[in-house]
Structure formats: structure tokens, C-alpha cells
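Researcher: Batch entry, complex prediction.
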Amino acid sequence: MGAEPAGAVRGKGPRARRPRRAGQCWPWFGRRGSMKCLVTGSNVKVLGKAVHSLSRIGDELYLEPLEDGLSLRTVNSSRSAYACFLFAPLFFQQYQATTPGQDLLRCKILMKSFLSVFRSLVMLEKTVEKCCISLNGQSSRLVVQLHCKFGVRKTHNLSFQDCESLQAVFDPALCPHVLRAPARVLGEAVLPFPPALAEVTLGIGRGCRVILRSYHEEDADSTVRAMVTEVCLGEEDFQQLQAQEGAAITFCLKEFRGLLSFAESANLNLCIHFDAPGRPAIFTVKDSLLDGHFVLATLSETDSYSQDLGSLERHRPVPQLQAHSTPHPDDFANDDIDSYMIAMETTIGNEGSRALPSISLSPGPQPPQSPGSPSEEEDEAEPSTVPGTPPPKKVGAEGEGGGGGGGGEGSRLQNSLVPSSSARCSSAPSWPP
Amino acid sequence: MKFRGKIVDGACLNHFTRISNMIAKLAKTCTLRISPDKLNFILCDKLANGGVSMWCELEQENFFSEFQMEGFSAENNEIYLELTSENLSRALKTAQNARALKIKLTNKHFPCLTVSVELFSMSSSTRIATHDIPIKVIPRKLWKDLQEPMVPDPDVSIYLPVLKTMKSVVEKMKNISSHLVVEANRDGELNLKIETELVCVTTHFKDLGNPPLASESTSQDRNPEHMAEVHIDIRKLLQFLAGQQVNPTKALCMHRICHSGKKTLLLRVETNETYKRL
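Model: C-alpha cells for the complex:
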């Protein structure tokens, strides 16, 4: 019964008094509970792959342990891509979202830091036996500990920021068009495209063939044209194909590849939900233990597009070519000879011949549809007014994580996600099949 | 002008792809000349000192199962196109395990060479990948610059050692100097020499063999051991060696010193189907 030293700690419950240390903001920290997740075996590599996937999208990782599971989310700087993985509690050997009676943790970590823990997937597969992610309510570091073979233990203490929940409001069920195929099929389909290709157009052609075509912005003063690659897949390759002929969207291939490589390695089916051009496209993978959603902005139509489409139809010199290009594989005997003729300048003294006038798809950069440019939003999107919520998509119903953050601010952020380069001319490619 | 061709044989496709990769490594843009029985890849790079020009010829019937062309006119039944060589090699890369490949001249928005690859797929439907390679049609008046170069009688002509060996030697030499001296004589000896202020390195190859000379007149007064030498840019030589993916049946190197003092080095690679000069 002697006097106890001033800093003594009694009990371990949340209400226990802890000695106050200078420079720390206690009341806030005190309310937050502890989190602990333990991943073992091959799931460690799955987690690592998911982080790699997310790193293709954004620079900050939002980590939120929910009752439903651990959620890892990110959004890109121009708010044109959002990605989220939700790992169910069963994915973990041990999962504790928070200590009872305490608030849920929400934190934001630099993607580079978190990725560095999982940088080498080969190493993860070969040497790591367990991975433990934990946060003690009082500490200011997220601890990721890798238990490796031979008694090696690697501990990473990552600093983080508290933040509001990153929520995107979207609902795949509201999209009229759906495609579902094994990720492997889609992976093979994108192989012919150059790795540096930024954007690709996905559309439904005649005979329900799914067509992927490389998309290049028309650059009026560029003399060097880019090669156009097109891949055509049959309906049989898809497990589900519910879309109209002529439906097409253009999205960022690089961002899509992030999810694709994850889905291929996990051998999952990939589902693409999309709507009209300009509306975001939702890419999902799902299995009993995890859920992945990538929401990407698509190129929107402008008035000039519909005009150009009309003019293309008129000026196109070889309309028969289109009729023959799909669905049957080309047979030389059926090819219309005349359709392959190139009109060549016969007068000597002409410098090269592009005999037909080049058709420009758009007169110049068009202002994006939404009133505010994405870069403006970026500055204001910090926790104070719009706490980390990306612009709600027009399809708007309650999506994952609830509509919490989006409510009052919805009216200010008008439109569907604008494509990543805000100044670009947004004419969708012509889409006759 | 019309052109369309189809390749169905896997080995032919493979060979064609490797040739296109070789071209892509040598030059950014090249000219493709299509005539009724041949395809040529031509590069004409006339620089002030030490440029590279290349002429590659393929017999069409060794590759294509179907081949049809119609040139500029009846008297000039040829087509000259300019394209970015990397585009072609990338398009052909898709065709590694293809059922068939079709290549044709088309005009979709702009003149292009359309390479259409029919791929094997797990399901019954075929999967088709199409590449539209933008091209520029070369006007008739420029054709004369793109003719087959005349091979003048060389002073020395010698068979090259295994190209792989030569490549690894030249690669190491590249780190030391930017110019290389190639010496050869009619006794089957070839030397690769680099000289800098600090060091001088020579690699000797012996017993290489010399091909029989075309004309006897130049040979008489030449001492077989006398070396003919040429200075060339290492990088250009390395480009040529690096691009060699086709196993040649013979590789030759010819030195020529013409009366104006200008020296040329001709490297000639022959396989059963193609021959190529540098």
C-alpha cells in the first residue's frame, strides 16, 4: 500500500489511466481501439498482390478494418480511378477490427511505404509464413510484422494519418451492360497491346463479338501516327455477356492492368459493368474470401463526337470493309478486291500520298463536362470539407461502405468521374462494328 | 495499288518475325518494297561519315501461301512503302503461335498495312488480333534512290567467325572506344582492333577462309597476307550483330578501298532464304 509511482499503469482496459507524455494528443487517441489481423500461408502473397494492384492506381492507401473485413482503398490524384479490396474475416487466421466499445480505425498510409513491405512477391511466397498487421490504440505507428522462415522476423513501423473514410458511391447493379470472363482470357486479349498504351476502347461489335481497340488521342499536328491494334473475342469466351451491340467505352488500360494481373494470379473471374460513355466503368473480382472493385472513368461523348461519327460515315471510302471485318474470319476469296485499293497520286512530283483527306476526330480540346476541374477538387478534398470522398458517380445509390461522406457534398461535385487528363478532348472513338 | 499476302506455316511465320525483329533493331524507319516475287526491306542512311545502308531480300514464295500484288502501274509493277520497323515487329510478335497471318494494304482513315493474326483460343471461336500499321507510300520519283546497291569488287573478302563470338568481343570493345578497325586479308585472318591513348586491344581470328573471288584481275597483284583495313563506328557494327537472330549459312565481310580513298565495309549474311547486306 505504498504510494505508487506517478506513471504507474493499472489494468489493461481502455479506461485505464496511462501516463501522459509530452507532445501527444491523448483524447483523440484514447478513443480509438486496437486492431489486429493475422494473415498466414498463401494468403500473404494474395495480400501482397492486392497491394501491388492498388499501387498502380493511387499514392495513398486507406486502410480501414470493418466488421465485414479489412478494407484497402485508394484513389488516384485526378479522382478518375478508385480501387478497393475487401478481405473477409475468414481470409485471416485472426481478425480483430477494433477493441469492443471503441471507434473503428481509419488510417491513410503512403502507398510507397506499405508497398515496400510487400515489394518482392517472390520473397513473400518463399519465405514469409505469417504477416501480422496491428495498431495499438495509443501508438502512432501501424505495425506490419512479417514472420519468416528460420526465425527471421521483419517489423515495419509505418506512420499514418487519421482520415475519414474514403467512399465512392457506385452500384454495379445499375449498369445495363455486363461482361464476365476468366481473367486469363482478358489477360491474353490485352497481350497484343503495347505496354505503354494508355487507353483502350472496349465495345460490342456485330454478332456479339467483344472488341478491344487501342485508343489514341487525335493530335492534329502530329505527323507520326500510332499503330492501331484491335483484338476481337467471340461470345463463347465470356461466361456472361449482357450488352447491346454498339455499346462501347474507353478507359485507362494501365489502371485496368493492375486489377487484371491480380485476378490472373488468383485465377478469378473478372466482371465488367458499364454504361454509356462518360459514366464510370466498374470492374469487379470476387471470391469467398475477398472482393475487389476498380472504378474507372471513361471517356465521354461530346457534341462534336456525334457530328464526326456522321461525317465519318460519309467520308469513309471503303464502307464494305467494315461489313466484312467481323464476325467471320477473313477469307480471301470473299474479300472485296476494290475495297483494298489505295488511290495513289499518279502525278510525279507529289510528295508522298495520303490521297484521302485525314479525318480529324475533334477540332480541339473540349472542356470536360463537369463544372469544376478535377485539380480544383483535389485541393479541397482534404478532410476539412469533403473528407476524402471522390465525386459521386451519377449512378449514385448506396454503394459499398454506405453513403456517409458523400451526402451533403454531392450537389457540389457534379458529374461522373472525369478522365485523368482534364484538358483533353474527349471524343469517344467511332464505333461502327 | 493492291497487296495482300497470307502466311500459314508456323516456321515461315517464325522466320519472318525474326527478320522483322532484325530490321527493327537496325533502323527506326525502313522502306518495304513489294514486287511480284520478292519483298525487300531497304534502309538508306547516307551520312557524312560512316552511315549504314541495308538491303534485305526475301523470296516471297518461301513465306507466303497466298500472295497478290498490283503495283503502281503495269510498267512499274512495284510498291514502295515507308514504315516504322518497330510497328511491324510488334505486330508480328503477336503471331508467335498463330494459326494464320494475313497482311494487306488498306486504307482505314489513313493508308496502312494491316496485319491480321488469327490466334488459337481455348473456345471454339477464333480470336483475331489486327494491327494497322501506318505507312507512307513513296512516290515514283524517289524509287531510284532505293535500288539494290551495286556490290563493287572488293579488295578482300572473308568469311566471318561465329557471329555470337564476334558480338561478345565487339560488345566489350565498345566500352573502351567508339571506333573499331576491322582488318582482313586473303589468308583467312581477321583482326578487330581498338586503339586509345592508354590501351590497344586486338582480337585475332585465324583460318576463316575466303570465298572465291569474282574477278581475277584484282587478285593477282595482292599479297595474300596484306591486310585491308577499315575504320568503323562500333555502335553500328554492334547494331548489325545484335540484330542477327537468323542463323546464317554464311556471313561474309568485304573490304573495298576504291580509288578515291573511300573505304566501305560490306557485311553480307546469307541464309537459305534471304540475303542481306550491310
